[in-house]
Design goal:
The complex is a heterodimer of chains A (324) and B (89).
Chain A lengths: L5 E3 L2 E2 L4 E2 L4 E4 L8 E3 L5 E3 L7 E6 L5 E9 L1 E6 L5 E6 L7 E6 L5 E3 L7 E6 L5 E9 L1 E8 L7 E4 L4 E7 L5 E8 L3 E8 L7 E4 L5 E6 L5 E6 L6 E6 L14 E3 L6 E5 L5 E5 L5 E8 L5 E2 L3 E6 L8 E3 L8
Chain B lengths: L4 H12 L3 H23 L10 H17 L2 H4 L7 E6 L1
The chains are: A mainly beta (324), B mainly alpha (89).
């Protein structure tokens, strides 16, 4: 072994000595010794459960333009509205995840939530001063809120008998979009008013799966994914709600993707919407015009290609340019 | 705001003559009027009608000016964006 890489090197049985140069045959071997070689040339080995992952900046053509922070087992990421901080979900698959905050200017990260439970899916307030996240410390995933400075303990925001994951905080600070995961009804999208009696209101709850809702930067629109057509596609709906959680005007709805899409993200100025085409792996951009009426352009595949299993966390830079 | 028919006519004529700013002034005037009319007609529909006022107005607007506005999306270029992603090493 050379660190966690398994090497092979010719061996002279008669002289009982190594010959030639060592060559790597397998990387990331678990425990540094989880392998066995058979007499017929077959090698069996066990990889480490999670590869280290590196936060990497890409341009829209898919070229690497930089890295951020140290390698780690990152399972999720969310850039703050000002683009200066990234909230990261760290942890090995099958084990509890924890939330860390990475300062993109210094490259240093600090743990944000402590404990043995799984904490994940952070969403920043518009001014970046607060963070809402999910934690299963009480059994189901409930919603908690904490100062981004980490000064005080988190407070419970919403507790119920279903798993819930926050996805977007409205630009006016008054609403939270979150996904409710119910094995029977699939995923649904709900709105939590953050003022008044905080009574949740359904936004998209059908027998189909709806998830990953994101407020547009002006707060008037919500992009989300739904499989109602038989495959995942991205839609946009207008959003108009008063503090009591009552819709003040029925709005329109538009199909954005044209060949499958998930995980929508708005550009910082709201003029472009990005999504992951989970059928070919490509990150795709759609130009958006909202005045005088809503219009979406033709989807334009970008140069970034991710694995189609949706396992690659990503987020567009707030103002289009990377901070670090 | 009450839309003056005379003003709309004047803007239409200016726009026809190639004055783009006239179109920009015309659009909100027409949109408001369409919205007012749509709300009026929708109020006479049965409750729970699948049509929605805003969607109706948007559809009508696009049909009205689609030929004119169809190239606008292509003209508004947005700057390239960077993405922060998790890359498996």
């Amino acid at each position: 072994m050379r660190e966690d890489t398994l090497m092979v090197q010719p061996f002279d049985n008669r002289r009982l000595d190594l010959t030639g140069q060592p060559v790597p045959v397998a990387e990331r071997i678990s425990d540094g010794r989880a392998f066995s070689a058979s007499a017929n040339g077959v090698l069996v080995f066990q990889r480490k459960p999670d590869p280290d992952r590196q936060l990497t900046w890409y341009d829209h053509e898919g070229k690497v333009v930089g890295t951020a922070g140290a390698p780690g087992n990152y399972q999720g990421l969310a850039l703050s509205p000002d683009g200066m901080r990234a909230a990261l979900d760290k942890g090995s698959l099958g084990q509890a995840s924890s939330i860390w905050l990475l300062d993109l200017s210094s490259g240093t990260s600090t743990r944000f939530v402590f404990g043995s439970a799984s904490d994940n899916n952070s969403v920043s307030s518009p001014d970046g001063s607060r963070i809402i996240f999910s934690s299963n410390r009480d059994g189901h995933y409930n919603l908690y809120r904490k100062l981004a400075s980490g000064e005080k303990e988190e407070e419970i925001l919403l507790r119920s008998s279903e798993d819930k994951f926050p996805t977007s905080w409205s630009p006016n600070g008054r609403f939270l979009l979150y996904t409710v995961h119910d094995p029977k009804t699939k995923d649904d999208i709900w709105v939590l008013p953050l003022e008044g009696d905080r009574k949740p209101v359904s936004f998209a709850s059908t027998e189909f799966g709806e998830q990953n809702a994101r407020f547009s930067p002006d707060g008037h629109w919500v992009a989300y994914a739904s499989d109602e057509s038989g495959r995942d596609e991205v839609y946009v709906r207008s959003f108009s709600m008063n503090s009591a959680g009552t819709a003040v005007e029925a709005g329109g709805r538009w199909l954005i993707s044209n060949s499958g899409g998930a995980e929508p993200r708005w550009r910082g100025d709201g003029r472009e919407l990005y999504y992951h085409n989970i059928y070919d792996g490509r990150l795709t951009a759609v130009e958006i015009v909202t005045a005088p009426v809503f219009r979406a352009g033709t989807p334009r595949p970008l140069g970034l290609v991710f694995p189609i299993d949706r396992g690659t966390p990503w987020d567009p830079a707030a103002d289009g340019k990377r901070f670090s | 705001m009450e839309t003056s028919a005379h003003e709309v006519t004047r803007l239409l004529q200016a726009w026809s003559a190639g004055e783009q700013s006239a179109f920009d002034k015309l659009v909100p005037m027409v949109y408001q009027e369409l919205h007012r009319l749509a709300q009026h007609y929708m109020a006479q529909e049965r409750p729970g009608h699948s049509l929605q006022t805003t969607a109706l107005v948007h559809e009508a607007y696009l049909r009205l000016v689609g030929g004119v506005h169809s190239t606008c999306l292509l003209r508004t270029r947005v700057p390239a964006t960077c993405f922060l992603c998790v890359k498996t090493r």
